[in-house]
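Notes from hallway chat w/ T.B., transcribed later so I don't forget. T.B. wanted the structure written out for a chain they're using in a teaching module, and asked if we could keep both sequence and structure tokens in one place. Agreed to drop them here.
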Amino acid sequence: MPTLYAASGSSAENLFIELFSDTFGAEKAGYLYSQYHFYDIYQNSRFADFLLENGSHRIAIEVDDEASHNKQLVASGKFYDDLLKQNSMVHLGWDVYRFAVRQMQIQPDTIKDELRVFLGAYPQFKEIEDYLPSQRAKSIDAVNLELKEHQKAALKALQGMRTNHETIGLLYHATGTGKTVTAVMDAKSCAGRTLFLAHTHELVAQAVETFESLWPEVTIGRFVDTVKEPDTQVVCGSIQSVALNLDKFKESDFNYLIIDEAHHASADTYQKVIAYFKPQFTLGLTATPERMDDNTVILDIFKKTAHKLDIQTAVEIGELVSVRCIRIHTNIDLTKVRFNSVQYNIRDLENKIYVPERNKLIVDTWLQYVKDRRTVVFCASVKHAKEIASLFSEACVTACSVSGGMKASERQEHLAKFASGEIKVLCACDLLNEGWDCPQTEVLFMARPTMSKVLYTQQLGRGMRLAEGKDCLMVFDFVDNASQYNIPQSLHRLFQLKDYHAGGLALSPNGQLEAEKGLYARGEKPDALIDWPVDATDYELVDIFNWQAEAAGMISQMEFVRRVDVQSETIEKYVRDGKLVPDLVVPMSEHRMFKYFKEETLHKYAEQYGWTLIDDSNRKDLFMEMIKQMDMSYSYKPVLIKAVIQYADNKGRVRLDDIVTYFRSFFENRRKNGLVVEKAKSVYLNADISDKEILHNILIYPYKRFEDMSIMRHTKTLGIIQVDETIWKHLNEDEKAKIEQVCNEKLMAYFQHLENKG
């Protein structure tokens, strides 16, 4: 659980984010979801310090002090409670890693090396899109069912795919927009045997209910745990149960296969099932959007998206409510507040926003603009929420603060009173991010400065549900002064809207936005704002610069090193001397900068300095060519490659101890057999050479050239050398044998030359 008094994280979390940024790049730290809410196996509310989505895996990261998991130093209740929390994360299918604060402070390089091993040197991070309101289960009236326009469009697109003889596709529809209904109706239109797969019992049960309502004329069975009904027309099963019992099915048993939560489909269990069955059509369902980051994994499986519906589109077609915005400028200065890629420094932020003037402005704004509309105020901490609620109460407004730390009964009582209208204002910090939503919410106050797109959008989602008599959601952005690089998120920055009119539409159904712009151009106030004290002529341009979005399309300096065949020291010197000029420099602090280059800038400098460009498509070929053309000042390079081929694990990792042993054995065998050991000045001419001297020689000579080519990486604190993953995973056994053969031929020619000279 987070501390009850926290603006947006702890100093320990800030330290972890800094180490993460140093490891993978500051722009990648934006994928860390801080204080991610989940429920343990007893349905108790919990928070993971961080959650990451890496490829198809969710990864929880816990940052602890040494004592927090030591049974001898903490109360037994807390010790076992922490165990329950961790085990519940594992039960959810997450990978869980824990890091100690003390170790982060005294051994930062060890933490960074471990992160590369645990998450991969070049991970495929994805945004966690828990944005939209949770859709409550609904009973479906199959007789009077009328599909919505996006569902009709999706069904038409899926039929079109089958007409074109396509056999697999992806349906991306935002949470709460009826994608399961769409899938069932499509399967029904195909009329064959259908298998529906999901990863939780709850999703399986919901699917059974949907099939029963929409396709009642067929038999519907479950395949979960002890319930095994494999012979019905429709089988709804858990992915785990089906994967463990494939022998109960024939590969041709099903004409139609539905994979729910399809963004998990690259996991081994899903791959096993997908590879086994041979349906006529396979449909993947996901609420996870196609993003700017790498989504090739899911599209590699499902080939193409048949139809998509994101949060903005959901508003445009009327599935979610229109959103308006009023920006309230404060006199708070955040320019000196320290920050990292994810959040502000907690102490700096507390000193700035916990001031009476800003709190009073929040209440005064409500009294001036809102009055009786139900409002959620998102605050920076529990203390902040209590202070704001107290000020509202002093102004005779029924208000209360809510948080995850409250007793469940008390919290539910407050939420029920808000839903009924008895309470007008809810002041919340962490609670309402977890999926709670009240459709009758008409106003949101974004009073918590945050740099997190995820957090801001999740808060926005709490008010976007449709409700009778609700024509829009009004969002109040409290705009604090900030530098270009630590500007908080806002509605306009989130959706890249430069033009701001007080109370104007930010998201709306098609056509309404353009029509309203015409009214503002004539100085007229839209009818929807008649009751709001805004002036139609209030207008400003919003600075929507977002360094993370800018950097997302660029190459970091650490990536620059990977992309050219020169040493990292050379790149650093050229940057320092002004020979390489970054396109974007992000100042995280006075002494901490992150530098980014455009793709065309990389190509320009590569051509200017005669560097070879390296990427994942040619890295293996360059490696193979390097082996063939390997220069032989000494025999060391082929010996290193032979050691790697012999000892590397399936991820291309080799223990340095094993490499040292291989080198010692190689040269000792030559000595024992009376062969030339090496040429003059080689350290291996010394029969008493120590392991330390061998290791020093390996890292100075043969390894360094491979490192400069971004072919190998030395993880110092773990004592391993790793071949670049994009090379190693694409090397088959024949290619490895060919590499070893070339190394043997090179060594034979090299030593033959030495013997001839001698």
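Follow-up for T.B.: The longest strand covers residues 323-333. Might be a good example for the class.
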